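FW: tagging you since you asked about this chain on Friday. Here's the raw sequence from the shared folder, copied in full. Didn't touch anything.
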Amino acid sequence: DVTLAVEAALAELAPECQKQGVTLHPDLFRPANFITTALGNVKMSLLIGGALVAIVLALFLANVRTAAISLTAIPLSLLGAVIVLERCGITINTITLGGLAIAIGEVVDDAIIDVENILRRLRENAGLERPRSTFRVVLDASIEVRSAVIYATMIVILVFLPVLSMSGVAGKLFAPLGMAYIFAILASLLVALTVTPALCLLLLRGTGSEVHNPRWVLWLKERYQRLLAQIMTRPRTLIASTITVCLMSASAVPFFGGAFLPEFREGHFIVHMSAVPGSSLGESVRLGKAVIAELQSNPNIRSVAQRVGRAEQADDTWGVHYSEFNVDLKPLSGEEAESAQGEIRQALAKFPGVTFAVKPFLTERIEETIAGSTAQVVVSVNGDDLGAIDQGASIVKQVLSRIPGATDVQMETPPGMPQMTIRLNPDRLRQFGLTSVEAMETLQTANQGTTVGQVFQDNRVTDVVVILDPVHRQDPEALADLPLRTPAGTWLRLADVADLLPGDGRYAIAHDGGLRRQAVTCNVAGRDIVSFVAEAKHQLASTSLPASVRTSFAGTAEERSRATHSLALHGALAGVVILALLAIVTGNLRNLALITTNLPFALVGGALAVFFTGGWLSMGSLVGFVTLFGISARNGVMLLSHYRHLVSTEGQAWNRDTAIRGASERLVPILMTALVTACGMLPLAIGGGSPGQEIEGPMALVILGGLITSTTLNLLVLPTLALRYGRFDHPGEGAQEAE
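HL: got it, structure written out here
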């Protein structure tokens, strides 16, 4: 809306601007294009994910009414989450929609568990000689799983709470996603506890013997029971294999590369060009025209615009040797945009003696927010002596340039800018009756101007400023002839009372914490940034720098380290609470240990997913692992709770037959919940390189991989371990019968 309003205002101003010889180009950079595309992609992922979930439910339930009851949880849960988000002042954007897209498969889990259990109890009730009322069957079936559903949902939410604790840029990006996810899960729990049983009572009344499992489900259960029976005869082999796989996967994790965030595929790049310090405005414009012509020869580039230098009072001050180019691409896919970035780099390599850096706009703004510089890696060199600082920065630049993967290595404010040094001679000033203040005031008027009056025209007030002509301000001979008036009324040349010496200087002196600062920046290509920074720190530690300076690192690697530390710390605190909940659910330490075995096995699938997609762990991937642990623990809780129900409520002896029966009865809901969650994630995982899905894509890939291995453990390994080590009855009895 803001973009459209601004464009409408510019359209009204265009005719008047043309009269003044000004041409407006309102579409050189239009962020609304990326936002619109990103929202469209995430919405499409939501729709596709919802459609895939519906297909899975239809295949497993083979009944329109039961599938409809389960599907009702999706719109109600998402709508409830959106309402709460708006009440909290959180807008619906690509981040919050991504959180809802990740949750779309999980919001039906509680409903699936409830519906499947009610349907199974209705079938059993229909076979009784004296069937109970439908109301009583539905009520008892809902109560049977209610406790486990609540605890399992609380665990999923607790696992995600550490994401909300992250600060900085990571917190700004992931907190809205986490809140959308949590609100959707809470809404789905509320729907499962209230709406789902009511719909079952309304739509499944009289249902029982006429509703059967599909034949393929019966076939699957039969094969599963046989396989599980065979596996249970070799528990030691199974346990050893499981531990081996977990250890192998865990040992590979430290070798994964690290990144903070992926580059956003917004189709707009900022190209930074830094020529030799002291280059004139005309030279920068001439060079810029050549760069624009070279870039516009690329058919994938829609427009290029140059901006030279920055004003002295701006937030960032740059000399006219520095330029920025806005490069806007035509509509391209994520892979095509990445390829276009490489083509831009190749085109810029044709201009020797000039330093370039190329970044997507949004990535650059994030990096500037993190480190105050538009680069991935920033090494600050601080001290009091400018000479020592520049010497240290030059050494740091050489070290970074030698590290594989370093690109765009440069000093932020390079010295060596030609300047004219004016040294007033006190003796000559006294000889002519002048003071240094009077001479400096004349110099200030010549170079910066002095307001001497105002002109009133209609409703406009214009200052009248006396200043030296720009051409003469750049001419040493003209400055030497600058007239100075003595108290006696005579005129002198500036050269009569001052020495004008050519030299080198700088256009800006940066400060940080009261110390002068020089920054060396670079980007990283072809390797992960975490290992690059680690190698850079190692090499600088063994490099001799001037004694009066100190160095410090900033950038996305440091931000990732802080975010990871926060995630780990608060994750450990959440883990303590989760263990307490699991202890309540399971009833003893043995069963608690059984559920925790699911967590490393979930790591196996997530690690494999990262390995086969490049081996880089971004913050999205790490958050995906956090989410995965909650999802994985959920099915373990449901299975062990069902075992407990069979033994304590139905009076079944805890033995091999009960273990196989309980696992067989939980087969369909476990497969359904895993598949609907996977189907909800699949569009995000496939479209991870598309605009709007750059953060959620790595999360979805990790969760998909982990779901495969954790579901395998829940169906094959956990029942076997439960038979051997589980306790679901009075102490001493279960172990004896299991033997």
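FW: Residues 132 and 730 are 30 Å apart (CA to CA).
HL: agreed, and The radius of gyration is 34 Å.
FW: great, closing this out.
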